[in-house]
Amino acid sequence: MDTTESSAVAEGVDALTLTNNAGDAKVDNVLNGVEATEYDGDGDGGDVVDPWNVASSNERGIDYDKLIKRFGSSKIDEELIARLEKIIGKPVHHFIRRGIFFSHRDFHAILTLKEQGKPFYLYTGRGPSSGSLHIGHLIPFYMAKWLQETFDVPLVIQLTDDEKSLWKDLKIEDAIKLAHENAKDIIAIGFDSEKTFIFNDLDFIGKCPAMYQNMIRIQKCVTFNQVKGIFGFGDSDIIGKISFPAVQAAPALSSTFPFIFTGKKPVHCLIPCAIDQDPYFRMTRDVAPRLGYPKCALLHSSFFPALQGAKSKMSASDQNSAVFLTDTPKQIKNKINKYAFSGGRTTVEEHRQLGGNTDVDVAFQLLKFFLEDDAKLEEVRVAYTKGELLTGELKKLAIEVVSPIVEEHQKARKALTDESLAKYFEIRPLKFTH
Ligand code: TRP
After folding, report:
1. Contact at 8 Å (CB) between 396 and 364?
2. Does the pLDDT value for residue 405 go beyond 80?
3. CB neighbours of 309 closer than 8 A, spacing ≥ 6?
4. Where do runs of H (alpha helix) occur along 98-137?
């Protein structure tokens, strides 16, 4: 979990009660100048989910069904999955099948576009807060890659080095360096360079008047009161933070990229992201129609639990909370064995008798995210629940699944040259039928 808090939060303005309370309807109210009413609590033990903090007091982690209600988004249900599978003619990604991507906004509208042969594009991003990514960071990017391949659409990736230098004690120059380092990790995931554009704000915005113009258009639509309501900013926050949401909103308007979207008609945008980013896009969805654009659609993921358990998420600022993409096989093995929270029992006898709990077991969660084989996963779940499989054995399986993913990633990253990297950043048309 990122430990940096907006000073509004530090000063006791409860960002969460305001943020979590703001479903689309609420944001509309907020943007129309009606104050957000205090969230009255519904017995979820105080889950905290906003762009800067994610925490739960429950060992099972965040209650995602309650979050859907609070945010006013929609559940990715069986019906949506069935419709998606019918349209694409293949099974959905296991992240969707297993509820890791669990919530959406307007995804049905994207599927309708697909049925009508109309275009859309994908947008996702990363705030480069550290030199190395951890495996939890891969999730939205794996989803973006699958969506890109499945729908054959362009993808834009925003690296918010500006955001990180505003929120952290990070020099502009260093934030830019981190963005370039992170880009290597993202490219190593294997995006098609003919259909993918990557940009870091601190370099790109100065080269793209269209983006700056859209930022200003967005800034004209949102007051300080409104961002206070949505993000919990306070009077003592630096003005960079207050205006930043417009920077993250702009790529959801297709005219921000005139070199990609050459037609006059706005193109629909679909954003796969972790649910903590939703406040940005609630704001974006409110503003877009006023500027003549469709509302962006969203696919929301849950968080990858910290090795210590689902009360917090993997964090780049805590070495022991996460498996990093730079870790050696030995480090991965040690970390999982030493830190991965176990849902097993205290003694072997007790475990054999009563069985383990896969819901809270982090080694099992690692398999749920990264073991693609459904049958194998179910086998493990049953064996662990019955007590046939011990914690040590489950951890061994998790290590065997995670290590090769990290190793492959390191190989792919190492193979990247400066030229291959530069290609993704080049301001250019993408291969895109429209
Ligand atoms: N704010 C995000 C972060 O800190 C980065 C980001 C920018 C992003 N644009 C995005 C994430 C679009 C998801 C979708 O990581």
Report:
1. no
2. yes
3. 59, 61, 341, 360, 362
4. 107-115
Query: In this structure, what token pair is assigned to residue 288?
Result: 């877009």
What's the predicted TM-score (pTM) here? 0.90
* Residue whose C-alpha is closest to residue 413's, from 181, 108, 226: 181
Q: Is the pLDDT of residue 60 over 90?
A: no
Q: How far apart are CA 221 and CA 359, in angstroms?
A: 43
Q: Is the dihedral of CA 313, 316, 318, 320 positive or negative?
A: positive
130 lines ligand 1 (CB under 6 A): no
Residue 54 confidence (pLDDT): 87
The answer, yes or no, to whether any atom of ligand 1 lies below 6 A from the CB of 387, is no
**Ligand 1 pocket, 127 CB below 6 A?**
yes
Q: How far apart are the first and last CA of the chain?
A: 40
Distance 300 CA to ligand 1 centre (A): 12
Is the separation of the CB atoms in 162 and 202 below 8 Å? Answer: yes
For residues 156 and 126, the answer to whether their CB atoms sit within 8 Å is no
- Rounded Cα distance between 222 and 33, Å, is 10
Distance in angstroms (rounded) separating the CA atoms of residues 425 and 252: 18
Report the percentage of the chain scoring pLDDT > 90.
Answer: 81
